[in-house]
Amino acid sequence: MNDFLTIAGKDYASRLLAGTGKYRDFAQTRAAMEACGAEIVTVAIRRTNLGQNPDEPNLLNFLPPGRFTLLPNTAGCFTAEEAIRTLRLARELLDGAALVKLEVLGDAQSLYPNMPETLKAAEILVKEGFQVMAYCADDPIQAKMLEDIGCAAIMPLASLIGSGMGILNPWNLALIIERINVPVIVDAGVGTPSDATIAMELGCDGVLMNTAIAAAKDPVRMAGAMKKAVEAGREAWLAGRMPKKAYLADPSSPLAGLIGS
Predict the structure, then answer these.
(1) Is the dihedral angle over the CA atoms 199, 224, 10, 190 positive or is it negative?
(2) Is 225 within 8 Å of 200 (Cβ atoms)?
(3) Is the pTM of the predicted complex or chain greater than 0.90?
(4) DSSP-derived secondary structure letter, 26
(5) Is the per-residue pLDDT at 160 higher than 70?
(6) In 10 A of CB 197, how many CB atoms?
């Protein structure tokens, strides 16, 4: 069945996007990316060597752009100006790559998105030809504003970055999914495969995760578990769950025609 995730006009077979930070080394990063099946992998431009430091290991030698779609992100940026400058640099380092992940943080403790700065940066970047995937609060109004600006995907947090707390507000996510026409990808807060499955069962188009895999005792094995979880959640969404019936039992086997009745 051809069930692709389409972002900015390009189809992807995997609905699991993965970050490349916090691994032991680049070799483990590559092994985890292979195990989770991610085709889109995020790269923190301000923290990762993509060739700007010739004397250090280069991530591109382990995750070649021909095999993966590298998604530069603005992790660590706290203003629109910082984020815009970082993504302009990324475009130079990655031979004009236009697909980017925008995140503008509000403070260093919570890493919660600064939405006024995010909206400001998104508007400028879209005008400059970037295909912006925007990390945002789980606010359906501001999510719609990002879509109206022209963002290629909306990426609401499930809970705080790196917290592993899972989906704390499924109702807001459901509102965003209902109102947004571009892909909605849960970003931040996933801790377990069941979290990823729930996101997909809600109707999200994909899930992005990093710490949930990289901080596991066995990152490569967890990567494989996350792959299965996202696939199972998507299948469940497509299949359509049974309706909930409060205080009403419905036996799996019919009661009529029982032997001896």
Answers:
(1) positive
(2) no
(3) no
(4) H
(5) yes
(6) 23
In the 8-state DSSP scheme, what is residue 234? H
Q: From CA 51, how far away is CA 43, in angstroms rounded?
A: 13
Q: What is the rounded distance in angstroms from the CA atom of residue 200 to the CA atom of residue 198?
A: 5
Residue 219: strand, helix, or coil: helix
Distance CA 59, CA 122 (A): 27
Structure tokens, 155: 């990426």
pLDDT, tens digit, for every residue of 70-129?
Answer: 999 998 999 999 999 999 988 988 888 899 999 999 998 899 999 999 999 999 999 999
- Tell me how far apart the alpha carbons of residues 112 and 106 are, in angstroms, rounded to a whole number: 5
Q: Which residues are catalytic?
A: 101
Give the strand pairing for 206-209 and 5-7: unpaired
Could you give the CA distance from residue 46 to residue 49 in angstroms, rounded to a whole number?
8
Q: Which residues pair with 208 in a beta bridge?
A: 17, 187
